[in-house]
Amino acid sequence: MSFNANDREGGGNYIPTEALEAASYPGRVVQLVLMGVQPQRPYQGQAKAPAEMLYVGYELSHEFMPDADGNPDVTKPRWVGEDFPFYSLDADRAKSTLRYNAIDNQGVAGGDWLKVMTMPCNITLSKEPRKGKEGQFTNYVQNVGLPVQVPGYTQPELVNPPRIFDIDEPDMEVFAKLPEWLRGKLTTNLNYNGSALQAAVLALGGEAPAPTTQASTAPREKPSAPPAPPAPPAPPAPNAAG
User: Fold this and answer.
1) How far is the first Cα of the chain from the last one, in angstroms, to the nearest whole number?
2) Which segments of 146-240 are extended strands (E)?
3) How far apart are CA 216 and CA 105, in angstroms?
4) Residue 96 near residue 87, CB atoms below 8 Å
5) Quick count: other Cβ atoms within 10 Å of Cβ 206?
6) What is this structure's pTM?
7) Which residue of 122, 155, 184, 215 has the fewest CB atoms within a 10 Å radius of its CB?
8) Which pLDDT tens digit goes with each residue over 23-51?
9) Residue 176 and residue 180: Cα distance in Å, rounded?
């Protein structure tokens, strides 16, 4: 499978951490995962066809996980991520196109997501109650915009090496480092049965998941672009770097 949008038509369990405040944060693209064909939630009561999905992870440049004493550990930047249907750049209002154009804002990568790895951007996060966890909050990516451009500011480079996972050419060392929920998505994608990923999982002694009613072993068909979604709101002004 290709990470190039022009080819399209149309590590462990999660550990809760204190959510960041709703704001915009400088970051860089650090992770890309082709998730295969995934079911889609109904929209306005209407069923939606399954779609190829892409997960994008961002490393925040100035936010870090706490160490044993509760102090920021500068060797462990915070990561946030989001997934969305992966369409051609011709679908100019699709989320995948809006995200790509915000990151490759100079148009130098030719639609290839692999070439935007490590590129800087500005990630706007919301802070919302965690479902089923009273008093806890979580962050969601609301928007991705142009990188911070403030005189005298130089955005740090990535601390972590970039991570890429393609279900058609599965790197099982990378697979083992993905969060459990994301591994679950990969091994229940609608074309998992008979796939290279299934063969790799079985070779390592894993078990295939029970087939779902939507599962298919037919060759994948590239999805057509959906109706254009509304454009997202403009992100708030970036935080002052510190």
Assistant:
1) 40
2) 163-166
3) 37
4) yes
5) 14
6) 0.79
7) 184
8) 999 999 999 999 999 999 998 889 999 99
9) 9
